[in-house]
Amino acid sequence: MSDQRLPTSPGFWRSPLRGPWFTSVLGLVLLAGITVLFVTGLVSYAAYNPGLSPVNDQTPGKGLLGFYLFTWPTRPYWLYRLTQGVHVTLGIALIPVLLAKLWSVVPRLFTLPPARSLAHALERISLLLLVGGGLFEFTTGVLNVQLDYVFPGSFYPLHFYGAWVFFAAFLVHAALKTPAALRNVRRIRQRPRPESDLRSPRPDPPTVSRRGALWLVGGGSLLLLATTAGRSFDGPLRRTALLAPHGGAEPGGGPGGFQINKTAAYAGIDPAETGDEAWRLVVTGRTGTVRLSRADLLRGPLHSSSLPIACVEGWSTSDQWWRGVRLRDLAALVGYDDPPDVLVESLQRHGAFRRAALRANQVRDPLSLLALYVNGEELTPDHGYPARVIVPAAPGVLNTKWVARLTFGDLR
Amino acid sequence: MTFRPRAPRLPRAPRVPVGSPLRLLLLACSFALAGYAGLRLLAGDWFAVALWVAGAALLHDLVLLPLYAAADRALVRAFTAAGRREWVMYVRVPAALSGLLLLVWFPLISGSAGGRYRSATALPADGFLTRWLLITAVLFGGSALLFVLRLRRATKQRPPADH
Q: With a cut of 0.85, is the ipTM above it?
């Protein structure tokens, strides 16, 4: 055990940086950061209105974990853009802090004896959930925003249930360690230095101070932030997001030259179905079914709203100028003066949200449109021609493109 | 033999220390919640998901961390051997930052997610490697520039040698 060639020996670990202060600072940053990630994640889950209809619900087995669900509001109209932008961008910026924190405590992974008491043994099992669960959450998130769906299953349930497993371990870890971490940070100038198993018994001469090492971690966070944050804005700011998906240039120019989640080709939209001859919007409600051509819709009173597209992947566009028929006017057309919930169906052949439900408060909002124009021109095929839904503060995927059918008051 | 040997006194089984009851209670609550969510997490392909969770921890602790720690140790050793230990940060910082970007954006930089990215978003997927290389060049270039500037300042400030 005292053989210093083995990681189980304290003398194996030579870095002079490891110590309670370094670990505690990183731990407190993660405490704040991961709490924000968890809350914004739960908020994003609620934004999908999973309790409204099975078509919105990627996690029908959630049980008690959906205890806090609430009616997702439509104001402020940039709400989801903000919360999800923070969730993804902050998550990416925290990666260096997470890696540094794990590095700072790695000697404890090899501590002998493996358990000093029953509580200690259980805590170490909990740490496996903490580290494994945390890395699982960060990895699935980072892969999903890059559209690299290599994880074993659908992103929504994996990331949602994984978050709860991780957070359960995170909570107990925070409860057990935060008091000591706060103490360690306050006691930075105390001499002699308090005893700690984190400090190497035979440290190498330093090549950098602890403060310098923290600067390197912070610099990594800043670099990731600087090359990512721009993907929440159009124009020159987006160009600063050099490596992040949906960073860099816009897809083409002109009125439709803003970010696309899924192109018409990718969604399997057949241009023959969207032509003026073929396409009809089927609206069903209390008084029966109405079939409207695009020309019929253009005759109706058209309204404008300036709204962003904000994706669960964390990117968003600036406000775009949409023009179309209000959803509540379409509800009135089929007998609802007080708008109910609506089921929106797309021409899309596949994709989890080709059918999506919107709640009455979303239908009622005067900014909620079945848009026909964007930025003064007809919608492009990739932005949902002939007609798409746009609702304030809703996650992008609920702004259904290539809409074929609206069923008011019946979500089955 | 008539005498009956006295039954040997068995050594008391060592008692396993239990630890703080509060800690046990907190851990029990945590496991209950983690179990509730975990059953749902494992409802699909349970083996693959469990492999991902445990594998993430093992891959990090036993592969990624030893790899970068060994690389760093080799770097420090090389600079120490050259008698320039204090210069190691000029390589370590740009290398760490560049490696971090590669780690986070590997699917896009390596092009493994490029096909789907291009067809789903109508955005080009082939610029990521170039941009990462350029950022890496800028990081190392900036570090080298800083190094040269500091070296020059240090030489100027050094008092002239006695002759």
A: yes
